[in-house]
Design goal:
By secondary structure, the protein is mainly beta. The chain has five helices and 41 strands. A five-stranded mixed β-sheet has the order 11-7-35-34-33, with no helix packed on it. The longest helix is centred in the middle third of the chain and has 11 residues. The relative contact order is 0.15.
Length: about 550
């Protein structure tokens, strides 16, 4: 009769490991902070930093280049560029930046000249373009000074806006061929005559319609027919998250001006909280980036489920928690890139990031390394005002001025249909479209660890790990690093590349890269990094990650 020890040995004896190759697509559905890590939707990612999701793969985000310098005193202590304004009228295309109480022209790359406007009480301007029979104008207000106009040639205060009492004007927008102005810390709004940029302003008090009180902080025109015409509605948003929607063209006429509805949303995040989204109007609130169409159909709780930011709701809520009152929140569309940006400030650290959505399929990612105080779309390009007082062109090239673009991603975890078995990943292959000389760093994360170790990445990006030709051993040392390049700062020198990492020339093709990895657990996920630092602002990285294949051995149930 077998001993008890022999019986016990048979009980715990495991099945032989079963090896297989598992295909996994790149996370084209984008970043998700909303799902349980143990039950994430395939093709999503709990981490997607500086990787931009597209319907057919994910790509490194573009970089940025210097557009304008010399905006006042140099140095980070002199303040950020807090406002960018775009003026386009025929062949006249002007880009303006506000810093330190002055406004500068910035559409010509390089050092700026003398300011075109001086002596402002602050540089947090709200503005809009507006056309009249007399030409195209910018109307701008900042909550402290007399409203200013740019007439195509110069800034000034004429024709003046008259009749406003009780405080300065803090926001401006156009609707129904009129300019509308929000008064600072007030529920009163003012409007001008149709097709006018100055003259007597007429008061429209909205306080009686606000159940929760507060001030009107923003507004816009909403074209419910996806165009522009008689069906346009005028929208006002209060500091407490109440939305008032009016139909009609003449606020002075009860027959043609009617309140269509009053809705409750989260509190808006600052004065730059509205963006056109197709035929819809989206509002940046503490609840998320809300579609006004969804707000009208649903109550506040249900509308949150339909928010454009619903897939990143937890990350968004965490960002809002401590910085809802911080300056720097802004949402803006970039039509040429099919993107919507949400600029996310963090006052405690001074670090700014962006949540970016692909408007083609609603997938999100996170941009890091862009210290932006404001954005503007100008002449089909995207610009941002830097925290260091410089204006940059965004979405261009494959380098952040002189800094590395570091891309970090992690796909959704999968238990391969067997949540109880222990699995060991040994080989990971990435398939991508691009130049064959670009390759990612690969690793496998196990059991919901969001920060796996990239052994090769850590080795090759350590300071001082430089191979010496003819001395170091092939296959064991890191070769060809440019002399004096220090990756601790991430700064690069022109023409000093790093072998097999710099973006070199070459034909675009479908390639794959296979790397030995180690990941052990019940659930596994491909992790992937890429450093982009070509040094050429004109050259795109031209890399798209398509899929992974991971070699896995599955053992017995534990």
């Amino acid at each position: 009769m077998p001993s008890k020890a022999r019986l016990r040995d048979r009980t715990v004896q495991q099945q032989p490991a079963r090896s297989k190759v598992v295909p996994l697509l790149a996370p084209t559905k984008g970043w998700s902070s909303e799902q349980n890590l143990a039950a994430m939707e395939p093709d999503t990612a709990p981490v997607l930093q500086n990787w931009y999701p597209e319907p057919d793969g994910i790509s490194p985000r573009p970089g940025y280049v210097v557009q304008a310098t010399g905006l006042g005193a140099p140095g980070p202590g002199a303040g950020a560029v807090n406002t960018l304004m775009s003026f386009v009228s025929g062949s006249a295309r002007r880009l303006f930046a506000a810093r330190g109480g002055n406004i500068y022209r910035c559409d010509v790359a390089g050092p700026v000249g003398a300011p075109v406007w001086t002596g402002a009480g602050n540089d947090q301007w709200q503005w809009t373009n507006f056309a009249t029979a007399g030409g195209q104008f910018i109307s701008a207000v900042n909550g402290a000074d007399t409203p200013v106009l740019f007439n195509g040639t110069s800034f000034g205060t004429s024709p003046a806006i008259t009749g406003v009492t009780g405080g300065a004007l803090v926001n401006v927008f156009s609707s129904q061929s009129r300019l509308w102005y929000c008064q600072v810390n007030s529920a009163d709004v003012w409007y001008l005559a149709a097709a006018a940029v100055g003259g007597a302003a007429t008061l429209l008090p909205l306080g009686a319609l606000l159940v929760k009180g507060g001030a009107i902080v923003a507004g816009g025109s909403w074209a419910t027919d996806s165009g522009s015409g008689m069906s346009d509605l005028t929208v006002f948003v209060s500091s407490e998250g109440e939305v008032l929607i009016f139909s009609g063209t003449d606020p002075a006429s009860a027959a043609t001006w009617q309140l269509k509805g009053r809705y409750q949303i989260g509190k808006p995040l600052g004065f730059r909280s509205l963006v056109k989204f197709g035929g819809d109007l989206a509002i940046l609130t503490q609840d998320g980036l809300m579609s006004l169409g969804a707000v009208m159909r649903l109550d506040r709780t249900a509308a949150q489920q339909g928010a454009l930011t619903r897939n990143i709701r937890q990350a968004y809520a965490a960002a809002v928690k401590d910085d809802a009152a911080s300056f720097g929140w802004q949402t803006i569309g970039f039509a040429r890139g099919n993107k919507i940006f949400v600029n996310v400030p963090h006052a405690a650290t001074g670090v700014t990031r962006q949540f970016v959505m692909n408007t083609l399929h609603g997938a999100w990612c996170e941009y890091r390394g862009i210290q932006a105080a404001c954005f503007v779309e100008h002449d089909d390009k995207l610009y941002f005002g830097g925290a260091n007082g410089t204006v940059y062109e965004a979405e261009r090239g494959s380098i952040d001025d002189t800094m590395v673009i570091r891309c970090n991603g992690l796909s959704a975890f999968t238990d391969l249909g067997d949540p109880n078995s222990y699995k060991i990943a040994s080989v990971l292959r990435a398939t991508y479209r691009g130049r064959p000389d670009i390759r990612p760093y690969l690793a496998v994360a196990a059991d919901y660890d969001l920060a796996p170790t990239f052994e090769e990445y850590e080795l090759e990006n350590a300071i001082g790990v430089f191979g010496t030709w003819g001395v170091s051993k092939w296959g064991q040392s890191t070769w060809g690093r440019g002399s004096g390049i220090g990756l601790s700062s991430g700064s690069l020198a022109w023409s000093q590349g790093q072998w097999n990492q710099r973006v070199w020339g070459g034909a675009v093709t479908v390639s794959d890269y296979t790397q030995s990895v180690f990941g052990a657990g019940r659930a596994l996920a491909p992790a992937f990094r890429l450093n982009i630092y070509d040094g050429s602002p004109a050259l795109e990285a031209n890399f798209k990650l398509l899929r992974f294949d991971v070699s896995v051995e599955a053992g017995a149930t534990l």
